[in-house]
Amino acid sequence: MSKHTTVSYSIGELAKEFDITTRSIRFYEDQGLILPTRKGQTRIYNQRDKVRLKLILRGKRLGFSLAETGRLFELYDADKSSATQLKTIMDLIAQKKNDLNQQLEDIQAVLIELTGLEKNCQDALNLIKK
Amino acid sequence: MSKHTTVSYSIGELAKEFDITTRSIRFYEDQGLILPTRKGQTRIYNQRDKVRLKLILRGKRLGFSLAETGRLFELYDADKSSATQLKTIMDLIAQKKNDLNQQLEDIQAVLIELTGLEKNCQDALNLIKK
DNA sequence: AGAAAAGTTTACGTTTACGTAAACTTCATG
DNA sequence: CATGAAGTTTACGTAAACGTAAACTTTTCT
């Protein structure tokens, strides 16, 4: 059995590591996305909290709102004993996957355009320098 | 030579087609992203405006701010006569491509996770129903 | 111990991307 | 021609995601 060596972090450490402010981290907690334990007043973050922080930031890069990311967290933690519950969850997952596939297409389209523009610029540059 | 059949649209038509409000379209104009001509007071949109609208909305889906999308438009319209100008533009393009590739990775990561979770749910469902 | 560093709460400020409303003009049409 | 639909400007409101600051309490270092 793995012993899950319980690592812990201070708010400052996490802030530095992810290059965000402590204010932001506390804000995520306010929004219910992270639930650090306390040692007196001081917040103590564990591995799970750190992973969540990482997911929050990735979500942000994808344009997810904090509420959306929160819902995704709920999906992971959700009770998987009811069939109707499960169907609901799977519907949500399917929806998210749909959205993400649309985003994938969008990104690929923009990448293609930018590559075209880049080439265009390169050509213009070559003409000038010749 | 192609005659470029000059099509034009009203603000209402575009709003309906893209399923956004007229308020939004006027806002994009405020931000300098679209420049419809006027017939009296009334805004007249042409093909180029329509394309831009499409790009604006795609940008939004990707989490671009209007300002960012505006900068991309500038890249397309930019003066390509100065070599230093061109280099600056190409740097910006490279940067954007970098960001987008990061997003691509993020999306693929989330898609993989969601697919895993989906399977997980499907398994749980099968256990219940059997 | 005394000062600096790190953490805490509370609260107001800021930006982006519109929503909503008021008050008015223009245009089509029955 | 009036009336209803569509368009216009101006302006204030709003939600999300923090930033910034004040004022205080630990913790940590020397």
Automatic annotation (TrEMBL), chains A, B:
Organism: Thalassotalea castellviae
Regions annotated as coiled coil: 90-120
Protein name listed in UniProt: MerR family DNA-binding transcriptional regulator
Taxonomic lineage from the root: Bacteria, Pseudomonadati, Pseudomonadota, Gammaproteobacteria, Alteromonadales
InterPro entries: DNA-bd_dom_put_sf (IPR009061), MerR-type_HTH_dom (IPR000551), MerR_fam (IPR047057)
Alphabetic keyword roster: Coiled coil, DNA-binding
Ranges for domain HTH merR-type: 8-75
Molecular functions per Gene Ontology: DNA binding
PROSITE patterns in UniProt: HTH_MERR_2
Cited SMART domains: HTH_MERR
One Pfam entry name: MerR_1
